[in-house]
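[STRUCTURE TOKENS]
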Amino acid sequence: MPSQRQLAAIMFTDIEGYTSLMQQDEVEAVLIRTRHRTAFEITTEAYNGKIIQYFGDGTLSVFKSTMEAVECAIELQKAFSEEPKIPVRIGIHVGDIIQSQDDIIGDAVNVASRVESLGVAGSILISDKVNDQLRNKNSIKTQFIDAVEFKNVNRVIPIFAIINGNLVVPKKEDLLGKTKPKDFEEYKKYRKKSLYVLGVLSVIILGLVYFMMHNIDDNHIKEATLAVLPFANMNNDDQPDIFADGITEDIITHLSKIQNLQVISRASAMHYKNSKKTLQEIAKELDVNYILEGSVRVNNNQVRINANLVDAANNKNLWADNYDNPLIEIFKIQSNVSRDIASALQITLSEGEVLRIDNEPTKNAEAYTAFKEAQMYFHRGGGKVEELKKAENLFKKAIEYDPEFCRAYVGVAETYMEYIFWGRESPKKMLELASTPALTALAINANDGGTFGALGAISYYKYEKETAIRYLKKAIELNPSYVGAYNKLAWIYAFEGNIELMEKNFNQVLKLDPLSTKYIGDMGQAYYYLNEFQKGIDLMNKSLIKFPNDNMLKWIKASNLSGLGRYEEAIEILASRSVASNTNWLLGYCYGMIGAFDKAKAILEYQLNKNKLVYVPAYMIATIYIGLDDRENAIKYLEKDYEFGGQGLFFWGLKQDVKFKSLHNDPRFIALLNRVP
């Protein structure tokens, strides 16, 4: 059998304490292993799995279906919990494998093995990828345990436990497998180092800005477009990169405040962490002229930061410096930096820009530490409630350490906005919660772009168009590379029917964050609301070449196909997604529109039952009802959605949304539209 590459759910099992038992009682150990293998063989076959390997007291198997792998694991633990009990731990991951006749290899196998090693007897642990595929499966309950770094695995992996029935759920401190030191435990060691960053960043920015604004070659001045690549962690130990990544993000944040400089967003820049691509290749992909790269080395109370500015077209080093200082001199360093900035930046920067760049967000090391960890969870959340909750709590912890920490208040408000964007909580509830920290941030610092961006987002979701535009434009004035502000403005212009301004703002979004599928998808859905369905489809087709497995891009393409009445094609794409492939509300609508009423009703029932347990935007349920031509219930749920605060995206576009065209002459629908500005 030739080797084949495929996507699979990989399960490892292991009998805890087997070696010790073997030493104490060989007969008993053999009996336990025999019973373990018998149960394993019968159950694996029942759930369509394939046994790859037995090794001592453990097993390796693969499944084509993640759901079947998890159900098999649950059934196995039920069998092993019967007397006499067998203390087995189980770990599951999903990913690409290369399978031969009697073996499998691949990074995903390595991850699955390490997930299993974290467990305790009676537990089933899964990776974040498995958890993503279980998100809409009501029969399977999961609980976030911790985010860990495994040895020889180049990313932090959130770990979840299956909590059905009497399964054992390990505590965070019980995760003792093949891991590197925990992020936060290591990061706490850097508390004093964190404040040093705030001082040294200004020095880096001084040199960089001076060059960018005073290009020596007057005959060949280039547009000041810059990407800051993730700074390399030059420590020789296993310390995580969170400190180096924090420096990268802070440099981007500071540089984004400069009016005549366009800086690629953090999200796109981090795609090139540990990249083997040349600087020319990266610059071409990001469409920038300059690259800033650097490195960080930490040794006891000494930090060395190297920064290097490169003209990407000819790979010419234009500016470089290094900063090697003891941590205890942080305030002296900041004082010296301020004097350097005062003499140099007056030539190139406005007084307001000098003030913003020179502003220290906090002088409290603990606050800064909590804030940086909060940002880590916020950025990788992707709509996962457990990640958003961690970010929210850590931002609040930063505020406890420093009640004057403006950016931490903005972080809390932005986290509440994420709950709305992903449909995880009632918008009305989240808007009420977000307003207080956003206004507090404004009271602390009225010269912060992030504050006005948060206030603009709140006004956007409240349908306060003019106020939202005013706040968002102020955010861009203070922070010209503020991606989120351009994004919200683009949506407002889309709902006004102004395709020119919509495209102008979205093009700026994608110039600053070209690798964000979230924003690419947003532009595609904006085309939907402008009835420019083919433009949306063309954009998605182009983007899916680069990101072929992205679920959001697939959903947006299906949305635009539905706008053209090409429901069968939309159904095919929705069914190909790796999440909610059989339960998505848009799929239910499309089934209804082709007359597959049983399938549409099954999805409707699923969403109604789900809504009894967690928040489901009523708009989504209304959409399925309109697909079934149940206009009465469609209007009923649209009215419910408005009562819960609605979602600006859906309600501002309700008038243009072709899905609800059949309601345009209904007095109740007209009355509802009149309530939306």
Notes: The chain has 30 helices and 14 strands. The domain at 185-360 is CATH 3.40.50.10610 (Rossmann fold).
